[in-house]
Amino acid sequence: MDCANLQYCLDCYSKALGQLVNFEKSALSFSPNTYVYFRDEICSLFGISQVAGHDMYLGLSTFSMQNKRIQFGYIRDRVVKKLQGWKEKNFSQGGKEVLLKAMVQAIPTYAMSCFMISDSILKEIEAACPRFWWGSTPDHKRVH
Q1: 25-39: per-residue pLDDT in tens?
Q2: How many whole angstroms from its chain centre is CA 109?
Q3: Coil, strand or helix at 142
Q4: DSSP state of 106
Q5: DSSP assignment, residue 62?
């Protein structure tokens, strides 16, 4: 890898768009397969610190895992937590519909624009919506 070419690309970007990379706020993480020599060279050239790994960035995982169910399980958990926080008895059907469409369907949208979310996660989110709509809980099943 030629660090000078990377520096050139960043310079062209900043000249074209008028935006600069703030290297003081930046951090790099590398693949385990990257040689230590290259890691040190890149970090020293740009003056950027090295971190073991970024957990999340803009609400999304920065590393792709083999098991998408584990990687995107937090989305399902956020939807279920949001639905449990609302008291379904306090909303009309119109209010429930607005909450489901505006809030619950919006939570996974950004992640879905970047990644393929597993079907099992999406099915669990879809199953949580009718439970909220009809007022079912794990202890009390309601017929609809």
Answers
A1: 888 888 888 898 888
A2: 10
A3: coil
A4: T
A5: S
